[in-house]
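From the shared-data thread, chain only:
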Amino acid sequence: MGLAASQARFLGITARKSNIEYEGQQVNQQRTALAEEVNALYSKLLALDLPVAPNTTEFFETNYSFSLDNTSGYDGDYLVKSYYQNDDGTYYLNTEHTFNKNVAVGTVLTNSTITNNEGVYSLNTPDATYQLRIAENSESMINLINSTYTSPEEQVVGPNLYVYQDADGLSHYLDQTAVEEYMAGTTELRSYISSNKKVTETQIFEKATVEFDANNRFKSVSATDPNTGATIFSSTDVDTTRTYNTEGYDAALRDYTMSKDEYDKMVADLNAQTESLQQEDKVLELRLNQIDTEQNELQTELEAVKSVLDKNIENTFNTFS
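Structure, as tokens:
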């Protein structure tokens, strides 16, 4: 190979080697970009909130209850629905109070009439006739009925009550105004009877003292009047019951299942994207290996041509020396 040919070959290999090096740099940059995308997907994966299955022990509710027997006017059964500690160390108790209470039960007197014979009122029913009289202590009975029936059509509006006793000795009450309206043909006839029934109402104790046992459960409870400071009641017979909230657990389990399905889908999507990027990186890695091989071959050939070129230069100079 002559000097000119060797030099031309040397320049061609050098140019090719430069192009290969540039392509290798481009491939490395592409692999770096892919690595950053994979890291971003991995960060998203780490940021996902892993759903936690509900623990059955968290759905047991501890309830406290106690009973009072006409203690300072407080009697019946008390179920503690919620409580919290006041700033002064006492406790605020929200209880469900179950006790016997006089309530007014209303009935409609069908197929009945009222007659007025010189101011004497009589109730005529299909079974019997009863003489009506003004009820004694009618004001308390009016209050009872008004506190029990709150809808306008069932409230007592008259100042007095008529009363009659049925065959069983039970006293029935009729509102005086309602009787007059009934006789005028404008309303239906309604009567009420006082009945002792078990009812449940909310009872709040604002200043209660609670003692806890070794298991941090109610041991005793007492309360004082927030205005006078007098003791309202004191009970050391506190019952503790634990109830399992099945509906709450089932709802939490459904939420967990939905969250887990969403989580699994997001993880699967991120893994699929990561795998796709890794496949691209493998193709680039293979191309980079090919570039390295070609680079090594070109370097070997370049060194061989350089050696020939050096000998040609040396022989040329020796010829003219």
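The mean pLDDT is 84.
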